[in-house]
Amino acid sequence: MINQHMKHQLLAMLTWVILASRLFAAAPGPTQFFVAPNGKDADPGTKERPFATPTRAMEAVRALVADGLKNDLCVVLRGGTYPLAAPLVFTSADSGSAAHSVTYAAAAGEAVVISGGRPIANWKPAGVQDIAAGPP
User: Fold this and answer.
1) What are the residue boundaries of the structural domains of the chain, listed by start?
2) Rounded Cα distance, 122 and 12, in Å
3) Rounded to 5, what percent of the chain is helix, strand, coil?
4) What is the pLDDT of residues 56-90, one digit of tens each?
5) Who's near 103: CB < 8 A, 6+ residues apart?
6) What pTM was estimated for this model as a whole?
7) Are the CB atoms for 81 and 37 separated by under 8 Å?
8) What are phi and psi of 84, to 5 degrees?
């Protein structure tokens, strides 16, 4: 049979466990956006439905930064090549704060290429003499 003193001890212990679990609960992880070469910019940028371009991810990041970051933010780029139509220009609108960071990173173990290059049609290597002679 439980006496009154034991009831108080059990109640105090239970209260402490509940409070401790709330105090020491893991902080929420970072908000994540995902980008993949086979994604769609109309998608929400989740792991299952990633954006297609870093530019679209940048727009999503800017919207969250403008509203005030509530936690860290990470843009995860899946492996592949991302051709750019225009340069990615980062400004303060893309930045985190003293309390919350903004990170762009390749997915673990995956190679990412962000390319502003353009293919050149009908290109042929020139010989050393042709280069030294200058343009025709």
Assistant:
1) 27-118
2) 81
3) 30, 20, 50
4) 999 999 999 998 888 999 999 999 999 998 999 99
5) 30, 72, 73, 74, 75
6) 0.69
7) yes
8) -105, 135
